[in-house]
Model the fold of this input.
Amino acid sequence: MRSEYRQWLLSQKYAANTVSAQVHRASRVEEFHGDLDEHYATDRMEGLIETLRYSVDDARRNRPNPTSIPIEGDIRNNLASYKNAIERYRSFRDSDHGLPDEPPVARGTTSEAAEETGRGLSLERDMQAALRVAIDQLEPGLVIIDDGAERSVDSGFIDITARDVTDAIVVIELKVGVAGQRAVAQILSYMGDVASEQAGTRVRGILVASDFDAKAKSAARVVPDLALRRYSVRFTFADAQT
Done:
C-alpha cells in the first residue's frame, strides 16, 4: 500500500480517526490477501473486492467467512467495512491516472470552468464534514452509521448514511448549488442499492442543496421516502486585531 494514501485521505477532508480506520482496514486486507497495488495492477482490484462481498442472503444462509481475514462477530458488517476500505483505496489509485475522483476536464472546457468544478467538489466535502458533526440540524434523531466515511454501493459512494428514530436507513446526498433531476436519480439509485443489500429494511433519502429546479421537485413529489432540504450559509465576523 502506498505511503501517500494517508495524506490523500486527509486531502479529501476526512476526520483523522476516519483516516486511521481506513488505513488500518486496508492494511488488514493486505496482510491476509497480498499487496494491494499488485491487485490493482492485475484487475483494478475487482477480484479482491468480489472476495470481500457478503450479501444479506449469505448471512441468512450462515455462509462462512469467504476471506482469509479472521473475523469475530458479524461477518457481513465486518466484510462491508473491509470492502469499503478497498474500494476507497481503488479510488485513490484511480486518481493517479486522472480517473473519477478528480474529474477530467472535457475538451473545450475553460480553465475557469475546471476550477469551478474543483471548487464545487471541495465545498461538498466541507459541507459533509460540517453536517457530520451536527447531523441533528438536518433531522432530529438521526444517527450516522457509516463509520465516518462514504458508504460504497454499486451506484457510487453515499455522502452520509444514517439511521432515523424509526430505525429506517437514511441515505443523504449533498449538492452545492441548485440540484436537478439528475441529482434525484442519483440518490434514488443509492437508495435502491441499499434496499437491495438490506432487504426488509425501510430506506429513506434526503437530498440537500441550496435549491431545487422544477424537474427535481416534480420527480421527488412522487417518491414518498425522499425529502428535499435546502441549506443556507451564514457568515460570522470577528475582529482580527490582536
